[in-house]
Amino acid sequence: MFFRNIVPWPAFLIALEKHHGAVLGKMEAAELKSTIDLSGDDFISNFEFDVFTRLFYPFKTLIKNWQTLTSAHPGYCAFLTYDEVKKRLEKLTRKPGSYIFRLSCTRPGQWAIGYVAPDGKIYQTIPQNKSLIQALHEGHKEGFYIYPNGREQDINLSKLMDVPQADRVQVTSEQYELYCEMGTTFELCKICDDNEKNIKIEPCGHLLCSKCLGNWQDSDGGGNTCPFCRYEIKGTNRVIIDRFKPTSAEIAKVAERKLIAIAPDIPPRTYVSQTQSLPHESHSIPSVDELPLVPPPLPAKTLAVKEMMNTSQSSASYVNVRELENVATSSDGELSRQRAPSVLAPPLPPRLSILEPPRHEYTNTSNLA
After folding, report:
1. Name one GO biological process term (predicted).
2. Does pTM top 0.85 for this prediction?
3. What is the pLDDT of residues 115-136, one digit of tens each?
4. Could you give phi then psi for residue 174, rounded to 5 degrees?
5. Which residues contact 109 (CB under 8 A, 6 or more apart)?
6. What's the pLDDT score for residue 48?
7. Fewest CB atoms within 10 A around its CB: which of 58, 127, 219, 284?
8. 256-292: string of b/e by CB count within 10 Å (b at 16+)?
9. Backbone angles phi, psi at 221, to 5 degrees
């Protein structure tokens, strides 16, 4: 199955009516076509449908929202410009609270609301991060949007505000196990770690609590972007998270994973008994218990070593060159030695005397005349 980027208007209308369960008359279908078909070529593109859904979301009540805000609302002015809205509201400056709304010419998919302030001045604003229905409903309660196009009777949007129900998010077993291993829960807001998630950001789908979203939008680095992925926020929906109810087997599985994470498997140590012989062990080596407590005596010095020490101490001015003594044992048990001749050391060089500088007799040059 494949999707087309451009769809003929009749095929698009049939699919839209089938999805929302609504049947539009000829006049109403023509008005819908003039709203969606921006190019006027009897074809609906992905871009045109995306602009339409942004203007009249939530998607669940898309057709009903369009009917309420266009043909049934006196404040709707489709394609007026900024100057045309200002010119029309100049006639209503004596009636603060008058307002009209139009499609934004510079920002496709957004609305622009022009109204007369209590001081009689004219302002135009673009609602951010909320639907037009919500913006008009809140502005009516605050006293800014009371008279649509100067008319006394405003359309009550409170019933339409209650139509979109909160989306329910079911926590899966994989999500339950993953967040349990991290020591938290899926339904807890990951920004404040205090409140539960109750807001879903569109279109990225990230979840957080309404308090954190408000603080993020009021901050300097926040604004109209998602605090997690920095994607542009097109809208928000209320959500209710259904907690996961684990079975006893799943609880035991999570506990086992936590235990493995805390204390991983360590191979047991191997101990060798003293009675067991190690490989390549020599039986001639005594054990610790068999060793004597007193250290062994030092070996006696030989006669040749003693004589070498005495000779070197007695004649310090000679250099005695001794060859290795051939020690042999005679038949009667006495030691016989052959010594090398002693060689006199070369004389030391004379000490250098400090040379005195030559003395010169003083000559009187005055007598040499």
Report:
1. regulation of signaling
2. no
3. 999 999 999 999 887 889 889 9
4. -65, -40
5. 50, 51, 54, 55, 234
6. 92
7. 284
8. eeeeeeeeeeeeeeeeeeeeeeeeeeeeeeeeeeeee
9. -90, 0
